[in-house]
Amino acid sequence: MMFSKSHGNESLRLRLWFLLPLASVLLITTVVLVLSIHRHVSEDIDRETAETARLAEHLYHEAIDSSASMLGTAMEVLATDQALHRGLADNDRALLLRRSVPLFAELRRKYAITHLYFSDANRVNILRAHQPVRSGDTISRETTLQAQRTRQTAYGVELGPLGTFTLRLVAPWFDADGNLSGFVELGMEIDHVLQLVQHIAGVKTFVLIDKQFLNRREWEAGARMLGRLPNWERFPDVVVNNQAAEDLPMELTRQLAESRIAERKTMASPEPGASAYRAIFLPVTDAARRNVGTMVMLLDVSAQMQALKRLTRESVLVGGIACLALFGLFYWLLGSVGRRLEQDTRYLLDLAEHDGLTGLYNHRMYYLRLDEEFVRRSRTGAPISLLLLDIDRFKSVNDRYGHLAGDNVLKTLGELARRSCRAMDIACRYGGEEITIILPETDAEGAVAIAERLRRTIEIHPFPLGDNKDGHITVSIGVATSSESIPSSTDLTESADSALYRAKAQGRNRVECATPCPVQAPSVEQPAPQSVL
User: Fold this and answer.
1) How far is CA 523 from CA 427, 450, 477, 503, in A?
2) Per-residue model confidence as pLDDT tens for the chain (533 residues)
3) What are the two backbone dihedrals, phi and then psi, of residue 206, each rounded to the nearest 5 degrees?
């Protein structure tokens, strides 16, 4: 009996010695696993946040530049109106008003242009087409001052007294003798830029403006005019841009009020079921290169945070039963998250590098790849040639058949350009209806032959126009080849562009080389199908 009792105590002791370390190992393993889950999910969120931040910044600057380009095009149209030139040179407010108001109405309807100014050579406003009752004040915004200093067109984002951001483009106009007549300014609110960033990057976007750049009375008046209740004292150093489409989340509001918001910090509302966000900051710079505000982008990470909480609970539960099962579940879940993030990363990289319509490399990648080829050329000495294609009278396709037909033409042209490329060639959409093809290790003669072959292929190819209709287009092609006089990617692009313009000027549907080539194929080899243009 004593033996049995002693044996029973020993068995209990052995069990305790075995179970306590095992329980400790399981507890430590569970804690380590939970901490590991927290770390991995946080890293995943960090990577997604970083990718979103880069995408949002790229979209913002691209949208600003694109809008400025559109304003520049509108300004070129206005500059062809001789009546406006006379009215500005003569300070004839009545003529400017009569001529510009219908033009401004058309610009506003088609392109959302909200401002049109005419100012004399001393920057004194003659007419605001969008507010004809106001005039006589001196325009001292940075874009106008830049245009006055440089005597060239200037553009940039300007912060208005009402707390709104406007993209402005100011062009100096000169009379026939080269004397400065005055300044013409076009402007548009950047709401569409913020909406584009918000939509494509999948974030909530708010702009915070530094109070030092605002007049409180004017800002409060602007808020009331926009139907908002002004609250200047809401935050210590900033106010919310009056163009905000929705209210700030409660947690962001609280942290701003306490001046303790941090970059890429997860903000979770204390309310059950509310969303959690990661904050991303992008400085907002005006035309004077001042950081006048901050674009706050909130990336919704609620799904990731909920997954993290769920995994923590499951880990604690499963860890008490079987550590190996928990490890298996963890690795399976992490693999699933990793595959999803890889897919998202590939999608974002493709979006950043390729044109969404044609599938070709975009404008940014064009210069990156061309610079790479010039670096390679510095080692090998091999020539680089460039083809710059432009559809002849492309606007008439859109006018006659609609923009969907124009898109079909661009898609088909992109496919033809891609199929014509060798493995080493690089096809890019340069912009609008212009396509570039980089030809490494190709001299001028070879480039002209390739260009002429491509021109003829395009000329005879049927392009779908919709409604089961096909048509034909033609292209003009500029060819340039690197040399001692063309030593850089910028010079090569400019040379090809000049050759393209020469091809346009000499009748279109032809290939022109930037420099004389030993052999250049004739532009027309046989009667071409009738063009849709």
Assistant:
1) 22, 12, 10, 10
2) 444 444 445 555 555 565 566 667 767 877 777 778 778 777 787 788 788 888 888 888 898 899 999 999 999 999 999 999 999 999 999 999 999 989 999 999 988 898 999 999 999 999 998 888 888 899 998 999 999 999 999 999 988 877 788 899 999 999 888 899 999 999 988 888 888 887 887 787 888 888 888 888 888 887 777 667 777 887 778 887 755 545 666 666 666 665 555 555 555 554 455 677 777 888 888 888 888 888 888 888 777 777 777 877 777 777 667 655 544 444 444 445 445 655 666 777 777 888 889 899 999 999 999 999 999 998 988 999 999 999 999 988 888 888 898 999 999 999 999 998 889 999 999 988 899 999 999 999 999 999 999 999 999 999 988 888 888 999 999 999 999 889 999 999 999 999 999 999 999 999 999 887 654 544 444 455 655 55
3) -135, 150
- Please, is 202 exposed, middle or buried when counting C-beta atoms within 10 Å of its C-beta (0-12, 13-18, 19+)? middle
The secondary structure of residue 527, as a DSSP letter, is P
- Give the SS3 label for residue 124: strand
Edge-first strand order for the sheet with 291-300 is 238-240, 203-210, 291-300, 276-285, 266-268
64: left (phi over 0), alpha (psi -120 to 50) or beta: alpha
Residue 97: partners with Cβ closer than 8 Å, 6 or more residues away: 127, 129, 132
User: Which residue ranges form the domains of the chain, and what is each CATH number?
Assistant: 192-303 (no CATH), 305-344 (no CATH), 363-513 (3.30.70.270)
Q: Sort strands 469-471 and 463-466 into parallel, antiparallel or unpaired.
A: antiparallel
CB 67 within 8 A of CB 190: yes
Name the pTM for this structure: 0.50
H or E element in which residue 224 lies: helix 216-225
State the DSSP H helix or E strand holding residue 427, giving kind and residue range, or none if neither. Answer: strand 426-431
